Give the backbone structure.
Amino acid sequence: MDFVAVDFETANGFRGSPCAVGLVRVAGGRPEAEWESLIAPPAPADVFDPRNVRIHGILPEDVRDAPAFPEVLERILAFSEGLPLVAHNAAFDLGVLRGAAELTSSRLPSRRSACTVQMSRASFSLPSHSLPFSAEAAGHPMTHHHNALADARACAAVALEAVRRTGEGTLEAALRRLGVPMSQLAPYDPAEGLSSATERALRSVPGPSGEEGAPAESFELPSRLDPVSPNPDADPANPLFGQRVLFTGPLGLSRAEAWRRAAECGAEPVGVLSLSTDVLVVGGGFASDDVRGGGRFTSSTLEKALKLQARGFRLEIVTEGEFMQRVGGAWPPHGA
């Protein structure tokens, strides 16, 4: 039962802009060591987007003297000792490793990985499988979400509790019992240069002014959108793979772009809430804690979804930020 839980925070919507990392190494089913560090994000993705700063509170001056990514990557590889990497929405955190490695021409070895969002879905019945909800279900209530080390600790707790419930003695056996795939981070050689995905994402990194404008909003009616077929070759380890996804409220993406990104990850975008909907993505400033009741956010679709959950339907409710982490790419520029 050996693995390393990892969590990254990023300076902007591009995954290759890490500004903090937290690691917890688990050996024999127990956390045995942890490490955290701020990171100077690699250029040209070193601009701090106000949307990200609001999430984690890390400012440009906080990382002025922080180590660069190649130095941090060396520490990560030494700390993890070749063990599987476990993360809450692993596609995002492994994407951080890959994106930053590309920007800094850093060699990246292959690593096995597992996603605790999927482990949480298979283990707990929750209104939301965001990390605070999953950690609380695992007996590890959080008080400081979006602190990299605190999130890594919570991720480790979720993985350990999910494994414990299977009765299996290894992570791999538990994942098989849960029906959760063990994924593989592809190695990266600097000779490969920048991938097309990284080149596209860099075009959405905010400008150096850091000025904040109103995000784009879209209210297209689902009936006006062309159907989008799920990508059959998408990574099954992505939490959206095989899910029927509905969007509600204003988003920073157009509805058509949100549908396209979801489908690329193997999801089926839908236009109406039904008993077969798996994931509801809520925009307009919704925070995952709003599902507990008493929050400032209200939505008729959200209220209907909560009623379905109360009736026992396994419908997950996520924020737009969580959706963006799952699909990759980057936020559109402000005002775009």
About this structure: Residues 222-327 form a domain with the Rossmann fold fold (CATH 3.40.50.10190). The longest strand covers residues 18-27.
